[in-house]
Amino acid sequence: MKKSNLILAFLLFILCVPSTYAQGEKTLKRKVAIGRFTNETQYGKGIFYDRENDPMRKQAMDILSSKLAASGKFILLERDDLDVIVEEAGSDMKKIGADYIILGSITQFGRKTEGDERIFSSTKTQTVEAAVNVRLVDVASGLIIYSDEAKGQAETSSKTTLGIGGTAGFDATLSDKAISAALTQLVENIINKCMDKPWRGYVLTIEDGDYVISGGASQGITPGSKFGLYKKGRTVNNPQTGTNVELPGKKMGHVTVTANYGDTPETEFSFAAYEGETIDAEHLENYYLMEE
To answer: 200-291, what's its fold?
Structure first.
């Protein structure tokens, strides 16, 4: 095939492929708050144990935060006082400012050292095992939409022959590795659960005909972004489970983002233009935005 024909074929391919291949699929980031993460084991708990400064609890939170941040799909909110916020919010969970809350606990933790002594050599192996449980709460409904537990293990060994070789001292990093191994098994499921549900936003107010909506640039909302505006469906109670269920909403129209404002994920908002049926501006809490 001639060079000119190859160039022509390549150009036709670029023009015909979907835009998601050419430009990359756009993802609206979800806001996630990592809440209460506890150490339910007895490891390292002495007379002067401080629950709030438990090093293993902080390890687990830091590792989970790093793994979720690395996915590029989330905005992680610092919520050191999340328990207080949840209590104050009551049934209005949206006050938390997140789409999802992750609650977790270290349920098992153990460290053991084993050795094998022979005439001319000896081997020493340190092993750490950890089990972590996580629960994912959908803030909009207040329901736990995912709960699971996973176990992880990490070990290190040393060997000496005729007195020559390395010696394995206490390896503090093994606890990090074991907890990380357990969380790795759960993170993919957490990501999938968060991304399965369409992104939702809210109309905060209407100013001189401009619709001020929640979210901004850090979530992937940019001028030109379009979202459907829906009126909430009626909430009914399911007597079988005792939970309230929101019926599908009615689409009223759509908004087109015109500008972004705000300095942090917590304070970001956007201006948008609205086209569609008339909505009740006095009761904006009855409406929501959803990606189209």
So the answer is: Thrombin, subunit H (2.40.10)
